[in-house]
Amino acid sequence: xxxxxxxxxxxxxxxxxxxxxxxxxxxxxxxxxxxxxxxxxxxxxxxxxxxxxxxxxxxxxxxxxxxxxxxxxxxxxxxxxxxxxxxxxxxxxxxxxxxxxxxxxxxxxxxxxxxxxxxxxxxxxxxxxxxxxxxxxxxxxxxxxxxxxxxxxxxxxxxxxxxxxxxxxxxxxxxxxxxxxxxxxxxxxxxxxxxxxxxxxxxxxxxxxxxxxxxxxxxxxxxxxxxxxxxxxxxxxxxxxxxxxxxxxxxxxxxxxxxxxxxxxxxxxxxxxxxxxxxxxxxxxxxx
Length: 288
What we know:
This protein has helices at 16-27, 40-45, 63-66, 82-91, 130-134, 155-158, 180-187, 197-203, 212-220, 238-243, 254-262, 276-287; strands at 3-7, 34-37, 54-56, 72-76, 94-98, 111-114, 122-124, 141-146, 169-171, 191-192, 204-209, 224-229, 248-250. By secondary structure, it is of the alpha/beta class.
């Protein structure tokens, strides 16, 4: 019996789920897990994130081509409709589903990870690597901006005016991005590469980003995160971020961003809980 972790990720939807999956897999230690991704390129690079085994499967319907009936799966995707999701639960002997929906409900034949829900066979928490909580180094970057790992429509460029007048460090993402990256590097002389993602979060005093996972990691490392709600991104994290008193900017509202930055030193963020060890224990117990 094999254990798989399927994550919907890619250059059109971002790597937030992949980054979360890598965090969880690292926390599971030597547990034998094969990561399945809907993006072949990130599957090839998964070892750089501490993931020993990974396979690109393109779409969720290809999972049975890799797995066998009775295997186990951790499932992080919203691709499957209710009928397909029920087929997945029946196909695998154990199904652990990762949810970000506040109004979600746990099915009878699954386990659930959620930042909102509690109850039997549910683990409430967010997956942030312990390295962010343990960071005690300097905060020598005043402001960093990380749009995300996906920008197929070049929305960062379309909204340059949103950042006008700010002296900031531009954090480049995984796919930045065909002929786009060199132009960004020229425009933002102060920038950090994709490989410096974690270090940049930790070193930044203020971290502005449209990445939900980066928001949580920045808060854990005692940075002051500001969330940019992209129109093409889910709003499922908004209740969580509001509960943590994280400022949220909609529609690239420059005036709102300026007001937020002017008062950021006085904002009282709520502490993010250290949940990754509980999540790892929950998964191990569920799989056993």
